Structures are given as C-alpha cells and as structure tokens.
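Input chain follows. Return structure tokens only.
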Amino acid sequence: MSDVPSGNEPWSSPAPGQPPPNQPPPGYGGQGGYGAAGGDGGPGGHGGQPQAQARNGVGIAALVVGIVALVLSWIPFLGLLLAIVAVVLGIVGIRKASRGMATNKGMAIAGLVTGGVALLIGAFFTITVVGLFSSEEFQNLFECTQQAQTAEERQACQEQFQQDFSQ
C-alpha cells in the first residue's frame, strides 16, 4: 500500500469539482443553492417548509380554565365546576392533538393537570362546607338566630354555637 490517499477513503477530501461524500451534486434537490446555515428548515434555518404555528384552542382553553379553577378552588361549587370544565377541555385537547388535529399537546396536558388539582381542592372545600352547613350545630345556630329578637340573643346563639362546635 502507498501512503497517498486514493480519494475513496471517508476521511479524504473530494476530488476537485466533485460534491462532498453523501451529498447530491449541485442542482439536484437540496436547498436551491442556499448554503448550509441551519439548512434543515428548523428554527433559525433557511429553506425547507416554514414551521407550523402551534394551535390547540381547546388545550389553551383547558389551561386557562384550569388556572382560574385552581385560583378559585377554595370557593365551594364554583371551583369544582370550573375544575370539571378544565378536565373535560384538557381531555378533548389531548385527544385532538393525538389525532393530529391540533398541535401543542403540552398545554392540554397542563390544563388537565391544573384542572385535576383544582378538582381535588374544590371537592375538599365543597364537602367541608356542605358538611358544616348540614351539621346539627349549624342547624341549631340557624334556628336560634331566626328566633332571636335582640342583638344580645343573637350573641348568645353565636356563643352557644361556638361551645357546641368545639366539643
């Protein structure tokens, strides 16, 4: 063997006027003569197809409603209702993205997660409030304040409720 490269080795330079290895000759496909500066058509590149805009209106709605539900989850019934809407929108957004009808699946997932967390918090507060209002102590307070004629009687009702509730 000689020490002179034959031009067929992968590390050798192409012969003058020949394209680099594994690349088409000029004028066949490629990028229309625009160099390789990011030439994959990706972000910041030249040539190729433009990137499609992220679109998933249902997923965006799920995220927005999920965040609002999370903020308002401490309000009985309202937080619970908004959380259910966020979960449903999140599921619809994920299904649309999975079928290729929408992009930006991440927003739909985030909406589903925030809606789920808000659903748990809202359910806790709703159950707590319903339990409190349906308790015997609260019913006694309600009846007592309905029958009270003066401010002193209403104050006595509140004190009796605090005693009953703390036991």
